[in-house]
Amino acid sequence: MKCGETPVTRRQSRRLMVGDVPIGDGAPVSVQSMTNTETTDVTATVAQIGRLVDAGADIVRVSVPSMDAAEAFGQIRKQARVPLVADIHFDYKIALRVAELGVDCLRINPGNIGREERVRAVVSAARDRGIPIRIGVNAGSLEKDLQQKYGEPTPDALVESALRHIEILAKLDFKNFKVSVKASDVFMAVEAYRKLAKLIEQPLHLGITEAGGFRSGAVKSAIGIGMLLAEGIGDTIRVSLAADPVEEVRVGWDILKALRLRHKGINLIACPTCSRQEFDVIGTVNALEQRLEDIKEPLDVAVIGCCVNGPGEAKAAHLGITGGVRSLLYIGGEAVRKLSNDRLVDELEQVIREEIHKRSGQDTAIPAKVIPIKQTG
Ligand code: SF4
User: How many angstroms separate the CA atoms of 305 and 300, rounded?
Assistant: First the structure.
């Protein structure tokens, strides 16, 4: 059965909470995205957050580049129904203000805040309110001295940068953080995460930054994030696309579903089609994807054009059809009845919704196996 437990053994990491979403220590890998509206436009930002949540975002990040944006963030926080991360660069006063206004996580690099008393102020505000921090290292904004030392961004340079920020928090005995070491180059990012995973106990936020447009970015992200997750590395993910952020959430979920780390909604198994197809497979799949977007419960559905591969796939899925003069419907591995090819989409939608209704109440999170990490520093 494809909807089974993942074979991935997860790296053990320290648990933190972003709002009510657990991260690390075997918690389901959470899916994040980021708004691209003007944060000061509260209505537009809240609306976009709503669309991200509907698509399956567990956590949403919002840029807070100014004090006006911080005040807007406070209003957004009151209206949004998902934990929010405030993305802040340099200005510690903004971090303090959003902490007062109820932020669920601060994305801020301690090494960029400036004087020690400012770092202390931000860390104590985070500690007092139980707010975790995400250290976000990016190959595109490495410190100048590290660029000079390594000549160019490298995995070691990314890790060294992360360790500097971590060291600042360690001196203040602050452990409630997660870390990302992103690069647009898949190999660089993957290697940096692998190295960091052996050095710290905190959860890792995965991403391939500036991955590209919808298709190329999705492919790069699936390879980079997928490689790491398959090795058990990674506790929360953000797919970065130059596209509608809703697509980031969808791609993120598809990566998790492919690795069987989490299950949500309809997992469509479809043949690539050829002249043997007995009905319009592509049209049927596209129509079903659109019509069934609202379904959150996991279900494997096979849509196969003919009897060459049809029975095998349809029997292995929770529900499937094999093309014929009239297509044959399988449920739970058993042939049930024939469906008219003229009304296939309508009939399939109906039987899928009936099946979901029968199965409602299932847990979508897959229990994780965990292994201890090596503590080397
Ligand atoms: Fe062609 Fe049948 Fe294979 Fe689909 S299952 S690609 S229709 S041979």
Answer: 16
Q: Is 364's pLDDT higher than 50? A: no
Q: Is 212 helix (H, G, I), strand (E, B) or coil?
A: coil
Of 268, 269, 271, best ligand 1 pocket probe by most atoms within 8 Å of the beta carbon: 271
Phi/psi at 365 (5° precision): -85, 140
CA distance 90 to 65: 9
A 10 A CB-CB count for 206 gives 29
Amino acid 56 reads G
Percentage with pLDDT > 70 across the chain? 94
276 lines ligand 1 (CB under 6 A): yes
d(CA 25, CA 139): 27
**CA distances (Å), 351 to each of 280, 318, 330, in order?**
19, 11, 10
CB 3 within 8 Å of CB 363? no
* Torsion sign, CA atoms 228, 230, 236, 241: positive
Residue among 268, 275, 309 whose CB has most ligand 1 atoms within 8 A, to mutate: 309
> Mind listing the domains of the chain with CATH numbers?
16-258 (3.20.20.20), 266-360 (3.30.413.10)
Whole-number Å distance between alpha carbons of 225 and 245: 17
- Using one digit for the tens of pLDDT, what is the confidence trace for 102-153? 999 999 998 888 888 999 999 999 999 999 999 999 998 899 999 999 999 9
